[in-house]
Amino acid sequence: MASGVGVNPNCLEEFQALKLKKTHKYIIFTLSSDSTEIVVEKTSSSTDYDDFIADLPESECRWGIYDFEFEKEGGGKRNKITFVSWAPDSAKIKQKMVFASSKDALRRTLVGVAVEIQGTDSSEVAYESVLDKASRGN
User: Fold this and answer.
1) Which one-letter DSSP state was computed for residue 25?
2) CB 3.0-4.6 Å disulfide test: which of 46, 54, 98, 119 passes with 125?
């Protein structure tokens, strides 16, 4: 079910900067204050995964893109662009519903995502969990 929420063009611009120019390591997206469009809340070039996790609020929903870099056994360094849909159990029900129904609009805009993570608590977005999912691919 689509919520009718649009995606601000800046979301795609920042995603392309992360994907092609490598100017960001991660991007945090949220809904605008009037809940009419998805906007960029923050971009960062920090390579520390813990910084990314710290930018996901404890009791509010967000979406994130993280350029996940890891060592593949016998295969050297790999990068996978990872989409995180963050909907903590402590978030308000209405917010979770709007974020869930708006996610597809954002996902369709961001072409090139290799891994998708649905997080409701910190264990689901922990580095080891994401590493496990990212390294299963190629």
Assistant:
1) S
2) 119
Rounded Cα distance between 135 and 119, Å, is 18
**What digits encode the pLDDT tens for the residues 51-109?**
999 999 999 999 999 999 998 877 789 999 999 999 999 999 999 999 999 999 999 99
Q: Cβ neighbours of residue 43 under 8 Å, at least 6 residues apart?
A: 14, 17, 18, 24, 26, 27, 28
Tokens of 49: 């995964």
pTM: 0.94
Residue pair 14/45 in contact (Cβ under 8 Å)? The answer is no
